[in-house]
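Sharing a chain and its predicted structure for anyone who wants a worked example. Both blocks are below, sequence first, tokens second.
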Amino acid sequence: MADKNSVHPAQLDYEKQKRKEEMKQQVITFALMIIFTIIAFSMVASGLDKLFVIPIIVVLAAVQVGFQLYYFMHMSHKGHEMPAFMFYGGVFAAFLCIIALGVLVWW
């Protein structure tokens, strides 16, 4: 008779493969974030026009925030729907406040 705590070898292989894929995604994401940071620093150091550099840096920063949330904060995993909903709701509320204040100041 099998023990309650024993796990089927196929389940162990599945978990091992799943963790391996997750680690691979995290390493690739980390490498991309390092590359984006190097691109941003090199653009600033090269002395390019601010109107060209600032939007690109903002886009690279937004992509890095997305990577951080999705891969490193595990927002893509099951069971994280409510924290993700609360976080994205807070981001949306902050965005609305910034837009409203911008309209009030510049109108």
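Comments welcome. Residues 1-76 form one domain.
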